[in-house]
Every structure is written in structure tokens, then in C-alpha cells.
Backbone:
């Protein structure tokens, strides 16, 4: 298809901006797409300007509940445009209803609400960082291996109250299992004790793409550390609000929640 587009551009049947832009990834809710376009181009997704690396590399992502289509507009360095309507495949999610729970298991106690609000605001601000380095070009591997005990998009309705969906993939393994960077990145948060997530590390992969590693028993990095894929950042644990030891690996493209499982091969031994 890329060769055909280049040939049509040479014949003047499509604009060079269209021929120069390729997209590769998962066009589905929770999916991530890597794009390449002519250096110096401008890329806009649904009205949001997307960072483009000097060599034309860029990344876009779709939230768990993304609508059925998105509009991508690429403007080449010569002013020519390539407008595409991207079809986003919907997904079905595991929804569980649990009734009869004590209220304390459904709603946090009042004395910690201010702490939760403060921690959430801090993390939301970090997810708006638009680092110019496309560190995600290293590709992704599993940060830990083990039994998958929770999947992206699932949700519980407790005593009739819909709780926030699960936005990551859970990997159950023994406490102390090393957690490794799934891709190159820069540490932008390293905390030993957040209310919900306990020991938490957030790794910035560039262009608004980040990974979060939750419930760690220990944190081995600090903000500003630069990690290569495979570097140890902490150890698996059962800290925060959990029922057992596991890693909760989450990913964001800015505020859009990405499914990490779509970026890695099947879990070894699964």
C-alpha cells in the first residue's frame, strides 16, 4: 500500500502529503497508532495538534470509550493536506455487579478524600507532559511475567454504584519480582505510598505517552532518571488498595487510557 501511494503521488493522482503519511497500530478503543509523515508536517487529531518528531514520527491513541471515528489531518511542509476519517473498532468489556457490600468497601473514608484529590491532580498534571523525545520508538515488552489476573476495560458496579473502569493489565507474581521498564523513558514520578496505588512509578516515553506501575513493594528510581528498556525500576508488591500481590501496568496518551496488552506479544506461557 505504501508503494502504491508513492506511485500515485508521482503520477499526480494523490497529494504528496497523503503518500508520505503511514499509520501502523490498533485502530480500536484503547489502541495506540504509530505514524510517520514527511518531516516538517503538522498533524492534528480531532482538533488536537500532535507532536511530530524531526524525522516525521508521531503517535496517537484512543480512549477506552472512544467514539466510532476520529479525524486525522496532516498538513505537509508544502501546505498540501491529507484528511482521513479513522474507523475505531468498539470493544466489549467485562462488567461485574456486586451487591450487599459494607459501605466502607465502596466509598473511601471522608478523612482521606482530600489526599486522594491531591494525588489525582498531581498525576493528571504529569500526564499532560509532551516530551519532545520519541522514546517509544524502542518498542515495548512485558515489564513482568506471570498470570494475567485483570484486564483493561473491565468494570465493577458495587451496591449499584458504577466504579471507575480498570485501565490497566494486572500481572500476578510473587512479592519482590523485579519490574522492568517496558520501553525507554524518563521517570516523572516515583512514590512509595499513594493511597490507591501504593508504590508507584510513572515513566514518560515521550510525545504524551506514559506508563504507570502500581502497587510496588519498593521503588528503585527517582524522578529524572533515564531508563532503557529492561532496566529495573522497582519490585512487585501489594501496596495501596489491593487484595493480593500483583503489578498493575497502565498506559496513557495524555488523558486517553491505552491498553498495554495491545503493544506486547502474548504473555509467555499463557
Residues:
Amino acid at each position: 500500500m505504501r508503494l502504491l501511494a508513492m506511485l500515485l503521488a508521482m503520477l499526480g493522482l494523490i497529494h504528496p502529503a497523503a503518500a508520505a503519511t503511514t499509520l501502523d497500530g490498533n485502530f480500536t478503543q484503547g489502541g495506540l497508532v504509530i505514524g510517520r509523515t514527511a518531516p516538517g508536517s503538522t498533524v492534528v487529531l480531532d482538533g488536537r495538534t500532535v507532536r511530530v518528531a524531526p524525522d516525521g514520527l508521531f503517535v496517537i491513541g484512543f480512549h477506552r470509550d472512544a467514539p466510532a471515528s476520529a479525524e486525522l489531518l496532516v498538513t505537509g511542509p508544502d501546505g498540501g493536506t491529507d484528511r482521513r476519517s479513522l474507523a475505531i473498532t468498539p470493544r466489549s468489556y467485562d462488567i461485574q455487579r456486586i451487591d450487599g457490600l459494607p459501605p466502607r468497601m465502596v466509598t473511601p473514608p471522608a478523612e482521606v478524600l482530600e489526599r486522594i484529590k491531591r494525588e489525582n491532580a498531581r498525576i493528571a498534571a504529569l500526564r499532560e507532559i509532551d516530551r519532545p523525545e520519541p522514546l517509544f520508538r524502542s518498542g515495548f515488552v512485558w515489564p513482568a511475567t506471570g498470570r494475567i489476573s485483570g484486564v483493561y476495560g473491565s468494570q465493577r458496579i458495587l451496591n449499584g454504584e458504577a466504579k471507575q473502569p480498570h485501565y490497566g493489565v494486572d500481572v500476578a507474581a510473587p512479592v519482590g519480582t523485579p519490574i522492568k521498564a517496558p520501553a525507554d523513558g524518563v521517570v516523572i514520578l516515583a512514590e512509595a505510598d499513594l493511597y490507591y496505588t501504593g508504590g508507584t512509578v510513572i515513566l514518560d516515553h515521550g510525545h504524551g505517552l506514559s506508563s504507570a506501575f502500581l502497587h510496588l513493594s519498593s521503588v528503585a528510581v527517582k524522578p529524572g532518571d533515564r531508563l532503557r528498556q529492561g532496566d529495573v525500576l522497582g519490585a512487585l508488591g501489594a501496596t495501596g488498595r489491593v487484595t493480593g500481590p500483583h503489578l498493575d501496568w497502565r498506559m496513557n496518551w495524555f488523558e486517553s487510557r491505552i491498553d498495554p496488552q495491545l503493544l506486547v506479544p502474548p504473555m509467555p506461557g499463557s
User: Anything to note?
Assistant: The chain has two domains: 2-87, 95-260. The longest strand covers residues 209-219.
